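Lab notebook, design round three. We kept the backbone fixed and only want residue identities now. Task for the bench partner: fill in a sequence for the structure below.
Input structure tokens:
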């Protein structure tokens, strides 16, 4: 197999809106501000949640003694998420950060009960037109655009012979769940690939979970062994199974959210070598930017950006 000697980083821009909104009051005060990140799962996914935690580290590094930060892993038992949000909201945290669509309903319930808190919801949308959520700022991404580039790359590597025909003629997609946000990735990926090769076929699998790398590997191996030459994982921890599968059968994968080639470069170079590129969401930058705006009194609460 031809070795990829140049790797591409696919950036992703935030989606903007023109909704009317207020701004969080400036956060300067004598006492340090307190920011907590509630992880609806566990760290170690080398992707989404780890990037959120990295963003918290970046806040601490930038603001030092002016801020206190904490990351709380809520685990995968969803019955514990709402009680945890309620408990944390009753404590003295100034800013409460959370990620993914799975948390939207929880913040919808909790935020109006705690108007003195500022909530930051990353990659989730609030029903701003149906209630008073003037203390919630939410951000969504144009993941279909970044995924379009990933699809172009996957198809292009086949078309130009970088990936030999003997590896297969199809490209693959591994999603954590069959839900709108994951299918937004898929739509962009397929359209990008077909822009390069209108006849290309895309093998699609959903694991039904974001936390099972073994399941991800099983599904990815099935794709690779059926003629898939390169796959794109959008499945959190589950997606790491695709990269492991690629290592086993000497085929490429495309990472998501974080630069997954860099993550494995030191600990597992052989696995890192099978990551052609990664489509970045830059959740860490989003977390830091939200806090920067909060400190400046410019965080546009009451809207999705």
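Proposed sequence:
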């Amino acid at each position: 197999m031809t070795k990829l000697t140049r790797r591409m980083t696919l950036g992703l821009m935030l989606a903007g809106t023109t909704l009317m909104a207020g701004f969080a009051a400036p956060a300067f005060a004598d006492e340090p501000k307190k920011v907590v990140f509630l992880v609806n799962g566990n760290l170690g996914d080398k992707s989404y949640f780890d990037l959120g935690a990295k963003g918290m580290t970046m806040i601490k590094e930038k603001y030092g003694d002016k801020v206190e930060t904490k990351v709380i892993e809520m685990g995968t038992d969803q019955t514990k998420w709402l009680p945890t949000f309620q408990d944390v909201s009753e404590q003295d945290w100034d800013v409460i950060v959370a990620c993914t669509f799975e948390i939207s309903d929880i913040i919808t319930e909790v935020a109006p009960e705690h108007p003195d808190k500022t909530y930051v919801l990353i990659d989730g949308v609030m029903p701003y037109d149906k209630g008073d959520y003037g203390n919630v700022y939410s951000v969504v991404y144009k993941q279909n655009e970044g995924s379009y580039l990933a699809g172009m790359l996957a198809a292009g590597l086949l078309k130009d012979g970088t990936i030999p025909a003997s590896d297969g003629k199809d490209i693959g997609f591994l999603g954590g769940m069959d839900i709108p946000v994951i299918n937004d990735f898929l739509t962009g990926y397929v359209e990008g690939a077909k822009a390069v090769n209108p006849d290309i076929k895309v093998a699609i699998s959903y694991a039904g979970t974001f936390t099972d790398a073994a399941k991800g590997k099983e599904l990815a191996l099935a794709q690779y062994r059926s003629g898939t030459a390169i796959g794109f994982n959008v499945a959190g921890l589950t997606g790491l199974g695709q990269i492991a599968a690629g290592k086993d059968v000497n085929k490429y994968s495309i990472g998501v959210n974080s630069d997954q080639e860099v993550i494995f470069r030191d600990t597992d170079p052989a696995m890192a070598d099978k990551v052609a590129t990664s489509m970045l969401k830059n959740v860490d930058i989003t977390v830091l930017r939200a806090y920067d705006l909060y400190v400046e009194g410019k965080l546009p609460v009451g809207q999705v950006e």
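Keep this in mind before ordering anything: The CA atoms of residues 123 and 140 lie 4 Å apart.
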